[in-house]
Amino acid sequence: MKVRYFVLSPDAGTTPEELVFRIIESGFDGIVKETCFGAIIEGEDERVDKIAEILRGEYYYVFSKERGYSIGDKRICRAERGGGARTGFYQIEYESEFLPLIAEAIKDFKIEKTKKPKNVIVHPINSLILADLVERSGHKPLTMMTEIAKLVRNPEIDAPPRNITTEDVIRGLKYASIEMPSGIRGRLGVWDELIQNAEAGLVANYEYAFGCAGCTHNDMLIYLIKQRGIPFIKLDLPRNQEEAKKFVEDIFVFLSSLG
């Protein structure tokens, strides 16, 4: 099973309701939930990914990334925890201000999908924009959401809220001393698989980051990517249309060079 966010650019001419109707019209037989920013869907992996392919093909201003938790999971349900923003909302809210620029930049950009997909780790590790662009090129983005999904949906593990195991914390000791807070070691332990499986890196300088990326130890992730000796590119987020075109072009040129 897979869960995906679909986020509309703020200046899109499509409403979340219309987006949901299009998903249903496409024959998707999983769970569909309308949100303030677009939609969340849950279903079989191939069917979910097919919807992403359809929507990106029809609406250049729709962006997508995987979500770790299932729809309605009580561990992150706002009704269960007394209100507040949904998990991941602040990251999406921040990145949304850049979506009009990115959408316009890719509108007429000819994207060639690779026939030899590579594992591309992104930073921030929960980025919507970077994960989306990596997928558009045919590569696989390595993100925190994919790793969290493996943990929170495993019925054999019961260590809420995120099912971080002793093994994860031990793996974190490769990167941090025992004196470091267990939360940091646990996070690094989860990152370990992403770091070791990465074949390339896509890094963007975000002025702000949230959730698992809202920690100064994220700078260590950039260092570890460099230490792996894998190809990587580091870019600044665009602030105008000209910068956005260069941002998108540089990313797709880099991704196409991977094979």
Proportion in helices: 40-55%
In whole angstroms, the N-to-C terminal distance is 29 Å
**Looking at the chains present, what oligomeric state does this protein adopt?**
single chain
> What is the H/E order?
EHEEHEHHEHEHHHEHEH
Q: Summarize the biggest pleated sheet.
A: 4 strands, antiparallel
Strand arrangement, largest sheet?
2-3-1-4
Give me the count of strands: 8
Per DSSP, the total helix count is 10
| Overall structural domain count | 2
In round numbers, the mean pLDDT is 88
Any low-confidence stretches, pLDDT <50, length ≥5? none
- The amount of beta strand, in percent, is 15-25%
Q: Which class best fits the helix and strand makeup?
A: alpha/beta
Global shape:
globular
Query: Radius of gyration from the CA trace?
Result: 18 Å
Structure description:
The chain is an alpha/beta fold and 259 residues long. The protein has 2 domains: 1-67, Alpha-Beta Plaits; 90-256, no CATH class. 42% of the residues lie in helices and 16% in strands. The strands form 2 sheets. The chain has a 4-stranded antiparallel β-sheet. Helix 7 (166-172) crosses helix 8. The two termini are 29 Å apart.
Descriptors:
Alpha-Beta Plaits, 4-stranded antiparallel β-sheet, single chain, alpha/beta
Question: Summarize this, please?
Answer:
The chain is of the alpha/beta class.
Topology:
Blueprint: E1 2-8, H1 16-25, E2 31-34, E3 38-43, H2 45-58, E4 62-67, H3 89-96, H4 99-106, E5 119-123, H5 128-136, E6 140-142, H6 144-152, H7 166-172, H8 182-197, E7 200-205, H9 218-228, E8 232-236, H10 241-256
Parallel strand pairs: 5-6, 5-7, 7-8
Antiparallel strand pairs: 1-3, 1-4, 2-3
